[in-house]
Prior knowledge:
It is built from 16 helices and 19 strands. Among the domains are: 4-93 and 114-218, no CATH class; 225-440, Cathepsin B, Chain A (Alpha-Beta Complex), CATH 3.90.70.130; 614-670. It is α+β, with helices and mostly antiparallel strands and 679 residues long. Helix content is 33%, strand content 17%. 20% of the residues are buried. The protein has helices at residues 32-43, 67-76, 129-133, 136-162, 192-203, 221-226, 276-291, 303-312, 329-340, 355-368, 412-417, 453-462, 529-539, 580-605, 614-636, 645-670; strands at residues 4-8, 15-29, 49-53, 56-58, 85-91, 114-127, 170-176, 179-185, 234-235, 250-254, 260-261, 345-349, 374-378, 381-391, 396-401, 421-424, 435-439, 548-550, 557-559. The strands form five sheets. Strands 10, 12, 13, 14, 15, 16 and 17 form a seven-stranded antiparallel beta sheet that branches. The chain has a five-stranded mixed beta sheet with strand order 4-3-5-2-6. GO terms for molecular function: deUFMylase activity. It comes from Hymenolepis diminuta. Residues 584-676 form the Enkurin domain. InterPro entries: Enkurin_dom, UFSP1/2_DUB_cat.
Amino acid sequence: MDLVHSSLISATVVLYLRILIHYGTQLFPLNEKHLDRFFTRLLATLDAFIFIHNDCLISKEKPSLRGSQSKRLFKQHSDSFKDPVTFEGQFNLDFDSTDAGPRAEVRSLQQLPKGLHELNVDIFFPVTPGALDGDLFAGLQHAVRRYLMDYQRALKSILKDNNAMPRSLTAYYFQHEDQLIRVFYPPSCKDELELRKKMHAMLKLPQYPILRRGLALFPTRSFRRLLGPNQENLVCPHLLLPPIPSNTDVTVEIIRGRYTYKHYLQDGIDDKNWGCAYRSLQTLVSWLLWQGIVSPLQPLPSHRSIQEALVKVGDKPSKFIGSRQWIGSLEVSFCISELYGVQCRLIPVARGRDFTSTAAAVLVEHFSAGGGPVMVGGGELAHTIIGVAISGSGKTRYLILDPHYTGTPGDSCAILAKSWVGWKEEGFWKPEVPYNLCLLPPPDDPYQSIYHPLAIHECEKRKSGRFKTIGPAETPKPEPKKFLRSHVALNVHKVADPVESENICPGKKPLLPDFRKTKFDERPTRCNIVSQNKLSALLSEPKKPQPFIVDTRNGHKYSLIGSGLTKFYVYKDDFGKVPNYIHQRKKKKIESDQLYEQYLQEMAMHQQKPRLSDEERRQLLARLKERHAKLYKDFLCLSVIIDTLHQKQRKAYLEKELNDIEKDIRTVEGNQFIFVEEK
């Protein structure tokens, strides 16, 4: 499969790099041969790249870093797998002084099928410490070349299957154990579930979600804009907490997948003292969006949309919309079911002192199965549980998101320092207050890879010992002296012990009674069958006789249909329809008549004004394009860094001239008849 690629994560000391290049939207040919030529020309421009990271600049003239720069990169990015060194690729316009660098060429449009496609490069790969001190430009260039070749194969595979050019292809990177997986996803995919199943089977992955878009190492721009991480929203702040030591006798189950932490005073809404359950609901919905359970990606529900959903299901009156009334776990489940079609599970806890005995085991099972965040409502307060830890002594702690935080949004230090996100003891729950838990179900993905270790173990276990259930039942072999005796095998399954004779199949059962000798009870009826038949005969229409033909020689009858004596027509699909070429000729004639009428009108309006001939118009257009090409060449020769006044004025002058000439070219190309006004 050309859309997926897997590699092993290096166990040695390496530095992970990420390269981002934005080529923009271009016309890509739909023909495979011309697509290969397009990528060949694209690969030929790799020498003109400049890779920039802060003050580090890598180019063909400067292919390596200084020693201090490489040491600083290793020091600043100690965990480079989660925080890679990002290089941004740009074209070097001053690359070749002989004017052989990248340029924009104006060619005549060929009559080839093309489609708009946005090409972006996103490469994530490791390098050794020695590669930073050596020819780093060659390594970056090789990574871009390999990425573009993989991108080309993926694009050709999609063209072959769908016969259409996708709007873009995005590289998503996933981590599973020691594998780094890259998947090219188009913006929309009809059978994405089937595609993920094939990828799981090819890579021998387990059955739980791994390759969903929201689980990628680097969220896309749409995810960052709607769900975070950004200045307003934090994503998975519990990962910044110190981990629980693995050598302790503690069972820990924490939520899988990403979520967005929502709290008071976000999104420009002052919901202090009444909106905690609304914020908890938004956290639950964010998990559904990150996991891809709810698609396509959409903004989180606002307070008003939540209230409108509750009014729509009939739980609240119409005056509830726009109010500041708080909601509970039951309303949260109603809203999620109405807006997204996801059924939540509700668990009541009679008192806070019974919280651990009632809910702890359920939460462990819930999070181990891959369930989502759990909203807890009680005492006019709402919290969100994302993890549980049970020690060997029976003490239980809960990993809780507190939506009552009113500080600066996105300030992770303040949130973690004051335990707005953190582990809470059993005493966190008020002893006499009843609570209700709203649990999001795990993703419904019934697919299980046949290569999963548990599946292999279970399959081998059922093939041996007492678990073997396939094949004929084992029976004792007859003695050799009975081989020639008849009816020997009939008594094989009989039990010798007369005590167990009740388990032996009985003999022949009695025959069923003869239905002809059975007496049926005749039930009296008041319905006159004769009168009813007369009435139906009078009211019904007689059956139309089938047309036939009589052979007068021998008196035989034949059906008239299919005899060949009547006309029977078979019409094509386009019978009675006007051919398309006539519509096209009619359309061209109308356009020609309109153009001629416009010409006559303009001639009447400009009788005194001379008109440019076709040859003069072509010469004018050629001179404008020649002037445009010369100015555009001067513009490409400008330096990348423009810091002097003369350079800025020169750039502004060239931009103004190019805009004016492009406007004149569009005017000449868009008007076939041009009149010159003499002054």
